[in-house]
Amino acid sequence: MINLKSSYTQFIKTEAKRLGFMSCGISKAGFLEQEAPRLENWLNKNRNGQMSYMENHFDKRLNPTLLVDDSKSVVSLLLNYYPEELQISDSYKISKYAYGQDYHFVIKEKLKEFLFSIQSTIGEVSGRAFVDSAPVLDKAWAAKSGLGWIGKNSNLLTQKVGSFYFIAELIIDLDLDYDNPTTDHCGTCTACIDACPTEAIVAPYVVDGSKCISYFTIELKENIPQEVKGKFDDWAFGCDVCQDVCPWNKFSKPHNEPLFNPNPELLSMSKKDWIEITEETFRAVFKNSPLKRAKFQGIKRNIDFLE
Question: Active site at which residues (predicted)?
Answer without folding.
Answer: 132 (proton donor)
